[in-house]
Amino acid sequence: MKLDAALLEILACPVDHSPLRADEAAEELVCTGCGLAYPVRDDIPVLLVDEARKPQ
């Protein structure tokens, strides 16, 4: 997963607007607030709530 650091600084969770952190191993972005995990496909973050994995 190759995401620019500047992009990560401006991305936010669409649910609670918390910052996202990159989980390189799982190739997803995880919300630091609610914990939803958003997939990254072909180096493009998919910030759709319907596509997010719920925290376990």
Walk me through the structure:
The chain is an alpha+beta fold and 56 residues long. The chain has a single domain, classed as N-terminal domain of TfIIb (Single Sheet). Helix content is 11%, strand content 27%. It has one helix and four strands; from the N terminus they run αββββ. The protein has a four-stranded antiparallel sheet with strand order 1-2-3-4, with no helix packed on it. The chain starts with a helix and ends in an 11-residue tail after the last strand. The mean pLDDT is 93.
Shape: globular
Q: What is the total number of structural domains? A: 1
Work out the strand percent.
25-35%
CATH level 3 topology: N-terminal domain of TfIIb
CATH architecture: Single Sheet
Strand order in the sheet with the most strands = 1-2-3-4
Number of helices: 1
Uncertain spans: none
Distance between the termini: 23 Å
Indicate the percent of residues in helices.
10-25%
What features would you highlight for this structure?
56 residues; alpha+beta; N-terminal domain of TfIIb; 27% strand; globular; 4-stranded antiparallel beta sheet
Secondary-structure topology with pairs:
Layout: H1 5-10, E1 20-23, E2 28-31, E3 37-41, E4 44-45
Antiparallel strand pairs: 1-2, 2-3, 3-4
Quick recap of the structure?
The chain is of the alpha+beta class and 56 residues long. The protein contains one helix and four strands; from the N terminus they run αββββ.
